[in-house]
Amino acid sequence: MEYIQAIIDLIAQYEQQNTLNLIYLVVLMIFVGIELISHVPSVLHTPLMSGANAIHGVVLIGAIIVMGNASPDDTLSLVFGTLAVFVGTLNVIGGFVVTDRMLEMFKKKPKGEKVS
Amino acid sequence: MMPYMEIGYLIGSVSFVLGLKMMGQPDSARKGNLVAAFGMAVAVIAALFFTSKGFHVISNLQYIVAAIVAGTVIGTLMAKRVQMTAMPEMVSLFNGMGGLSAALISIIEWRHLLHTSGSPEAMDQAAALPIGMYIPIMAGLIIGTISFVGSIVAWGKLNGKIGDFRFPSQQIINAVVLVAILGVAYINYGEFNATHSSLYFFVTIGLAIVYGLLFVFPIGGADMPVVISLLNSFTGVAAACGGFLYQNKVMLMGGVLVGSAGTILTVVMCKAMNRSLMNVLIGMAGGNGGGSTTSASGGSVREVQATDVAVMMKYASKVIIVPGYGLAVAQAQHVCHELENLLEAEGVDVKYAIHPVAGRMPGHMNVLLAESNVDYDKLIEMEHINPEFATTDVVLVVGANDVVNPAAKTDPTSPIYGMPILDVDQAKQIIVLKRSMKAGYAGIENELFFHPKCGMLFGDAKASLQKLVNEVKAL
Predict the structure, then answer these.
(1) B261 is in which domain, residue-wise?
(2) B49-59: per-residue pLDDT in tens?
């Protein structure tokens, strides 16, 4: 009973925070992700992994928000936050540039080509 | 008043989905990457200069911009400088950076939470700690840390800086560590108002680091792509945790998208190797296949000279080249293409047989060979090329090993048993370019080399191919 109550409380809390909407979003995005990848030729697996790698660099937005919330005299938060923005940017920029370099190679192929 | 920030995030989210979709087709792949990059830029600008209320420059902008500029310059340099062969480890390294970013965010938010909810005023109210914030913070911390540490280990392994490391009952220890992480995180929640709260928090970080190490250490090098793909989806989930924390939809959608797409990609890769994900994670193959003793086959290898091979190929009507990691390491793709052109000029039909996991990653060989302008039509995937080996005069195996090992079909005790292979033994002649008789990445003997039809041309792949080119020219 205790557990059930805890779960109910949890759901109530989530609902309050408008988090339930986000959960719907999560479920839908999971399906979108599965659908996008399911029928991809194996040639593109490496670039695709690299592209997805760049996209999760969106964590950079979180790092920016953290920095925006940090008070100017909270040195530790500022240092960690700046580092988070820096490595997040590395992830984004590095990810997209590496992917572009990989995909550059696919450009010269004749059109109408079918893989597998 | 227009909700510019929301619009910016929406553009970001849509372009991620669209970009990933386009990246799934060879024709639009490059554009897809640019679309996703554009969306990211829009989302970052929205975060920097807008709130849901309108234009508002974020505080501490100077530090943020400095960090972004530094990250852009260094990231571009690293990505531009890296050799095509070292791409996999580069991807792993960037992935680790994303994980680190997520973990750092959680650490800052945790301190923030301690100072607000943990302050004496808030202590009076029961359940001061909002679980809706606690869960995403801890999940982001744990997953981000594991992803960071794991990616760095994977990076070191692909570079050859870190070897395989196994000890008995490792799976059990891993499971215990994982349970301990969750347990400590749970206790931390209960003890939130106590003075020792931060201690539990740091213990959680420490355990997550240990888990990240233990998770990747035992996995064989050949399985690294699968692990990187998996860690990639971990980082996606860590980013999604940030989305929950800030109710930020672009982080949530981008993170979940990568989390789910990455997981599927991992499964698809495993399928290409005919391995189950479980199998890879436990580290079954990749060197410790218990029963596989060296099947010395009693025979001896036949060493051949470049001249003979050149003659053989020049007067063949059909040659198939099987490229492997050896080709990549030796940077031999250009000279390989040169050889192909020479043979074509002599009227020989030359094709490339691409195993799904040739090299270190699916598609690795395609990328490399495309770099040296090899015609896309000549790269034939395994299922289409296998029937052709019977009518082939010479198969030239360039630095590939496990993908042509007949043990995958014949020896049930072999760690790679069941993996689909290229049926090179159907061809009339097999020539293997190899540096030495050392085993391949799976760490097992290849009886193909002892096959009567097989000749070995020892040496660095690039040097050997160059010799062949010279010999063919001289003939």
Answers:
(1) 86-282
(2) 987 777 888 88
